[in-house]
Amino acid sequence: MLEQLVGDSKALDRALAGEELSYNDGLELMNYDNLHLLGAVADNTRKKLVGDTVSFAASYYMNYTNVCAASCQMCAFYRKGDEDDAYTLTPQEIEQRVGIAKQMGATEVHIVGGFHPKLPLEYYEDMMKTIKKSHPTLNIKALTAAEIFFLSKLTKNSTKEILSRLKDAGLDSMPGGGAELFHPDIRNKIVRGKCSGQEWINVIEEAHNMGIKSNVTMLYGHIEKPEHIIDHLIKIRDLQKKTNGLLTLIPLKFSLDNTELEQNNLVTHECSSVYDLKIIALSRLMLAGVLNNISVYWVALGKKLAQVALSNGGNDLVGTAFSEEIYRAAGKHTASSVDDLATMVKEIGRNPAQRNTHFDILNKF
Question: Strands (DSSP E) along the chain, which ranges?
Answer without folding.
Answer: 53-57, 59-63, 108-112, 139-142, 173-174, 213-220, 246-253, 316-319, 351-355, 361-364
